[in-house]
Amino acid sequence: MARVVVTEFMDERAVARLAAVHEVLYDPVLVDDAPRLAAEAARCDALVVRNRTQVRGALLEALAPRCRVVGRLGVGLDNIDVPGCEARGLRVIPATGANALSVAEYVVASAMLLLRGVYQSSAALSAGQWPRAALSSGRETAGKTLGLVGFGSIGQLTATLARALGMPVIAHDAVMPASDPAYARLGVRPVGLDELVATADVVSLHVPLVEATRGLFDARRIAAMKRGAVLINTSRGGIVDEAAVAAALKAGTLGGAALDVFDAEPLPASPHFADCPNLILTPHVAGVTAEANERVSFLIADRVLEALG
Q1: Omega within 30 of 0 (cis) for the link into 65
Q2: Residue 174's pLDDT is what?
Q3: DSSP code for 68
Q4: Cβ atoms of 203 and 176 closer than 8 Å
Q5: d(C-alpha 208, C-alpha 95), whole Å
Q6: R_g (Cα) of the chain, nearest Å
């Protein structure tokens, strides 16, 4: 019997699946107790984490030599030192594809909300105001161009949903050649990043946080966006300059923004976001729904069981 440590929240039925075969420590707040986390890591054969547990440095050293597998309840691996894990014989298993639909729906729903621009008027109406004229110039989604920066599985599913709403879709992917059949199959036109930024009505980011993407959407690139365009980031926070987004919203050059990820998480007090028009901030939940959590949790539970043998 192996020992599995789960450091963040996981569907409890998937935890039970693991516990039916192996000894399991399930503690959704273990991530916040570094000394205890390191002690438990030293005694585990498998570690299951989300995005907050940093599998590197002292924690990675604590895992060696006993641990054999790290299961990631999500897709991004920037919180895991993958080369360091591989060098120590640790297999890293992400939940690839399991939360793609949740993220794609978040992007399309946010695009519709921000383009229309009327859905934050409840407080004004309940206070007796009637801002009908001010809110009568919202934009329809159909016919607006969606630009996807990154065209992996999530970007491709987002394209499918957007095209069903009548949105033309363009995409830029630094590692996917324009000849890739996925573009033609999904009716998406591959373009350079500069063209995408200048022409898209909605820009949605779907790239990992690596050195080449850190600060990719800085003040200069945000200024190059089509006036009134919408920016949506569900990838990683370090890709976008948050202060530049706030400044562009207040200046009226950026028509709206939805940010689900941030350079520092949890997001500390951020006065630059105060009084920003047409802004949606959410706490890294684009890929977390009841259904996605179930899919992610059971996929990782099954893959960890396979890896432990």
Answers
A1: yes
A2: 96
A3: -
A4: no
A5: 15
A6: 21
Report the C-alpha gap between 147 and 149 in whole angstroms. 7
Beta bridge pairs of residue 157: none
Rounded distance between C-alpha atoms, residue 185 and residue 177, angstroms: 14
Overall residue count recorded for the chain in this entry: 309
Q: Which residues are catalytic?
A: 236, 265, 284
2-51: pLDDT as tens digits: 999 999 999 999 999 999 999 999 999 999 999 999 999 999 999 999 99
Distances (CA, A) of 240 to 37, 148, 233, 264: 31, 15, 8, 12
What backbone phi and psi angles, to 5 degrees, belong to 93?
Answer: -120, 105
Q: Which residues pair with 279 in a beta bridge?
A: 257
Task: With cut-offs at 50, 70 and 90, classify the pLDDT of residue 275.
Answer: very high
- Spatial neighbors of 16 by CB under 8 A, at least 6 apart, are none
The confidence score (pLDDT) of residue 56 equals 97
What does the longest C-alpha to C-alpha distance in the chain come to? 67
> In the Cβ-directed half-sphere of 90, how many Cα atoms lie within 13 Å?
31
Torsion of CA 72, 77, 79, 80, to 10 degrees: 80
State the DSSP H helix or E strand holding residue 78, giving kind and residue range, or none if neither.
none
pTM for the whole structure: 0.93
CA–CA dist 67, 53 (Å, integer) = 16
Counting Cα atoms < 13 Å in the Cβ hemisphere of 232 gives: 28
pLDDT at residue 88, as a whole number? 95
Backbone torsions φ then ψ of 197, nearest 5 degrees:
-65, -35
